[in-house]
Amino acid sequence: MSDNDDVPFNRDFPLKPGIVEEVRPGVRRVLCNNPSPFTFTGTVSYIVGRGNVAIIDPGPDDEAHAAALLDAVSGETVSHIFVTHTHRDHSPNTARIKRSTGAPVYAEGPHRASRPRFESEKHNPESGADRNFAPDIRIGHGDVVEGDGWRLEAVATPGHTANHLAFAWPERKFNFVGDHVMGWSTSIVAPPDGSMIDYMESLDRLAAREEDVYFSGHGPEIPEGPRFVRFLIRHRKAREASILHRLAKGETDIPTMVRAIYIGIDPRLTTAAGYSVLAHLEDLVARGVVATDGDPVIGGTYRMANA
């Protein structure tokens, strides 16, 4: 049984880089040519509306992708740019699109960690943070931005990053969910940039909403979004149970847990898996279920609190 048997992932995504595709009326998408174990086939940028449009997630620092996006909206006016979060595969191209269109940039804020870095922690290279990004207009949960024939509501979805927002289009029952929910794989939650406590609360927030088609930062659209989110919640709880099962056998470290839990993992993802386990352990330590000496860090050893 593979690690992901409990979640109905869909890795069928034939979209080619640079091609504009209307996936639903009023929603177009363009794929960037930046495939990797973390980005699947690449980052997906979205164009919302017709005539006067918004662009969501301009993507990485990639001139060809910026040109493809601008070509897709040739003859139209870009009135808004939205950014779900500040990872380098989502936000750096914003400057190019803004330069070409003059459109203001809407986002939660600059990059920040979910919690202060512990003294014993080294910088986490997996985070891929875009520390140069700053929005023109900061928006938060519940804020509504209206354009020509569309209306987007900011939904706070911290967890993958502290400043992650989804953008819901309630009238159409669409939600642009960035990297918080992906149809092809689970999201990476890597402390201190990410937080499992925040991530799980954000999943609950999405599951309680009525939008049923999710447009993700990577991979295909997700039908029955809230149902898929409930799968993800169960999957994360199963991962937590696997960690507790391993700790029930005695004190251990994160590399040992990764080997026990992630059978057959792509070796390029081992470090990220370790940070995902750390995110669960932070949550478990905060709840008093698991104990460690000092701060919960990637190099620590962990045991059941009652052991």
From TrEMBL:
InterPro entries, A to Z: LACTB2_WH, Metallo-B-lactamas, RibonucZ/Hydroxyglut_hydro, Sec-metab_biosynth-thioest, WH-like_DNA-bd_sf
Any Pfam family the entry gives: Lactamase_B
Basic and acidic residues bias (residue ranges): 116-129
Gene3D superfamilies referenced in this protein's UniProt entry, alphabetically: Ribonuclease Z/Hydroxyacylglutathione hydrolase-like, Winged helix-like DNA-binding domain superfamily/Winged helix DNA-binding domain
Start and end residues of each Metallo-beta-lactamase domain: 42-218
SUPFAM superfamilies, sorted: Metallo-hydrolase/oxidoreductase
Coiled-coil ranges from the UniProt annotation: none
Location of the region described as Disordered in the Swiss-Prot/TrEMBL record: 104-136
Protein name: MBL fold metallo-hydrolase
